[in-house]
Amino acid sequence: MAEEGRTLFCPGTPGAGKTIAAASAIEELKNRYRNDATVAVIYLYCNYQRKESQTAQDLFESLLRQLFDGLPTLPGSIHALYERYYQGQFRPRIDEVIHCIHEVAVTYSRVFIVIDALDECSDTSGNECKKHSGDRTRLLSEVFQLQAQCLVNFFATSRPTPDILETFVQYPSFEVRANEQDVLKYLDAHMSESPVFVIQSPELQHQIKDGILQAMDGSFLLATLHLKSLATQQSPETLLQALADLPTGSQAYTQVYEGLMQRIQAQPMGQTNLAIDALHWLAYARRPLKVKELQHALAVELNSTELDHVKITAVKDIVSACCGLAVVDEKSKFIRLVNHTAYEYFDGLPYHRFELAHAYIGKVCAAYLSFKVFLSGECYASQLCERFQSNSLFEYASHYWDEHARRGCIRDSKTVKDFTESAKAVEASCQGFCASLHDDSRLIFRFPDNFTPLHLSAYYGLSFESYS
């Protein structure tokens, strides 16, 4: 921090606290330079679920936006870029964005860049030509070039994958590991959730804490999951055996998640079904979901014409049914799986599980888009805003129903056919889809004359006998 142009790389195992370390660094920098307008603190949180919206182009645009947000007036290069592309509603080329970043960065006395979870940033370019570098490679290359030109300070976190370790081999590094005292405080605070025979036995509590500290391998998350798994034991004997068998090493998370899934299956049927449906959505949705989106999704009945709000489940009941696999960000109101490793666990399940999950999600999306509230078709901008606000799943369903239908192989299902053969429902969905791409579309999007469901079928590559 004291010396310009320095890099600090912080690798760590999953759940060790890397994101907390990054957030703490950002907060410390912002507080330290709060009253200094000549210092910029910009950052990126890479997210496994946001790969589509976290391409190199997206990430550079985010950095540029943060840089010029701190300026009293916009530089001429930003004005020129805006004028060049706004009218045509096209995005600037990535090299133009990078050029602007360099131009704006030199106007500051200091620039700090923090990037969390580099391993969750895709490193595929989407171009088969090998001369095109992947998103992560391009991002790091440009950050290092910016650092050389502007003496930027760079802080990054990541899982210790070989390629990323190689990239930072010449830079100082500090491994992120859970602090044992912090873990002990957590265990003490949550020991009351254990069975009565544990609460009444200080000796068992001591053994639990020692066993978890030995098995957690520097991961705070693993310690919390171990405590949850031990809380299901019914006697001191079975608990001590489970404590001795706590998984460690590279397969620890897989074994823990398998244990949690067994715990979910052992619940009453209603809770089990709720958890399985919720986990399908959280694991296989194409982007992170807001709490209200998931609540609407779980309340959909395939043969209904409207959403029964009485069937909306409280978020605490959803989280409870998922037995530790789901968490809510209270600030952003998003709900997600507990860690990147959980997404990897579900991605690694047999293909038929993957297909069934997408079939379920695709049918729910199609059923939602078929509700009578959408059967009036296209609407005015003011009504469209109300449509989005009142129907929380509308944007997601409009945008992704087709992808789930493809992956779930349900093109010929009655639910999907009922939707695609309803011209007005399709019209409303298309408007929602276009509006979700750009905010401006809510105001300017209009349908061509003679638009029919067949056009939608052709666009999405769906082929139904009724159109032949």
From TrEMBL:
Repeat among keywords: yes
Coiled coil spans: none
Source organism: Dactylonectria estremocensis
Domain GPI inositol-deacylase winged helix: from-to ranges: 272-346
Protein name: NACHT domain-containing protein
PANTHER family: AMELOGENIN, NACHT DOMAIN-CONTAINING PROTEIN
Entry keyword set: Repeat
Record-linked InterPro entries: GPIID_WHD, NPHP3-like_N, P-loop_NTPase
Domain Nephrocystin 3-like N-terminal: 4-159
